[in-house]
Amino acid sequence: MAVQPSVGDYKEFAKLLRQRFNLELKRYKQAALKAAKEYMRSSKNDSLSSDEFDLLVKILIERQYPLSSKLGYELTISDYQKNKAQLMALDAYERPYTFNRIYAENMARARILFSQEKARDISYWFCRKVLRNVNHRMRRNLANAGISAQWLEKRWTVPVIKGQYMSPAVAKGLPDYVANMVSLITKMSERSHLKVQEAIAKGLTKGYNIQELAKSINGLENMDTARAERVARDQSCKLNQFVQRENMKAIGITHGRWVHVPGMYTYRDSHKFILNNQVFELAKGLYDPEVDKNIQPGELPFCRCIFNAVIPDNLLTEQEK
């Protein structure tokens, strides 16, 4: 008995992710051009290296100051000044250009506005949707196997949405999955932002005007459908298997049977020829010689494997007591 990741879940998530990602990237490009205009009008004497710029962004992100407030802006500059010694002591790779301080601050603030906050919104939406669908299908499959609704209600006690509940273990582990997804989406955004940053910085050193700068960054690629679906499918499978595993353990199902699901073009040899069809303890996973550790189905990057629950003989009788 297994609940496979819903194609509808990851397709919808992929579409939303691609739309939001490309929209925010477009806005970031506009903010970067605005920062470049201010750079052209400002003094070039007070400059930051690329590594100084990166540390300034780190300070902004960690403090999470309200960027629109005067106090937040002043605190950010104060933190920057406190870290000046650390900035200057960095034994860093030298790039052939520097950033004006005002330009760096504008770019840093723009990068934060168009990354973490949106990634968190998308991640929460996706996790709630997967939870709702997985729980619904699990209840139906377990009922067909003879597990009563009363038995589930005693052990799945944390509400997801009206009329649906999850186990306390799922509720406890869910924030980590949200955080990991936020981190993944944020890193994807940051990589794109860095490309914009690099393109503008190089253009400024070459004396580009605003029109030439705009042309250089508008040519940078957006997220396409295939890339969005790869990310969505991977995250969908990971969350699906986690929810099933913890919900099953909560009702007394301790073992599962590994089911190998190949990718569209390739697969892991160990998953197909070694792990497939093996019964394993849900709390421990199975040893994978290719990575030299125990893993769970769907845990490794782009792994689509799932598990079938092994219902113990005494569970059906125990719930009648």
Give a quick rundown of the structure:
With 321 residues, the protein is mainly α.
What does this structure look like?
The protein has helices at 7-41, 50-63, 70-82, 84-89, 101-113, 116-144, 149-155, 168-205, 210-218, 225-250, 269-275, 313-318; strands at 47-48, 99-100, 158-161, 164-166, 255-259, 279-281, 286-288, 293-295, 306-310. It has 321 residues and is mainly α. A three-stranded antiparallel β-sheet has the order 6-5-9, covered by helices on one side. It starts with 6 loop residues before the first helix and ends with a helix.
SSE order and pairing:
Layout: H1 7-41, E1 47-48, H2 50-63, H3 70-82, H4 84-89, E2 99-100, H5 101-113, H6 116-144, H7 149-155, E3 158-161, E4 164-166, H8 168-205, H9 210-218, H10 225-250, E5 255-259, H11 269-275, E6 279-281, E7 286-288, E8 293-295, E9 306-310, H12 313-318
Antiparallel strand pairs: 1-2, 3-4, 5-6, 5-9, 7-8
Helix pairs in contact: 1-5, 1-6, 1-8, 1-9, 1-10, 2-5, 6-8, 6-10, 8-9, 8-10
H-E order: HEHHHEHHHEEHHHEHEEEEH
Query: Number of helical segments?
Result: 12
Distance linking N and C termini: 24 Å
Decide which structural class fits the backbone. Answer: mainly alpha
Feature tags:
3-stranded antiparallel β-sheet, 321 residues, elongated, two-stranded antiparallel sheet, mainly alpha, 9 strands, 12 helices
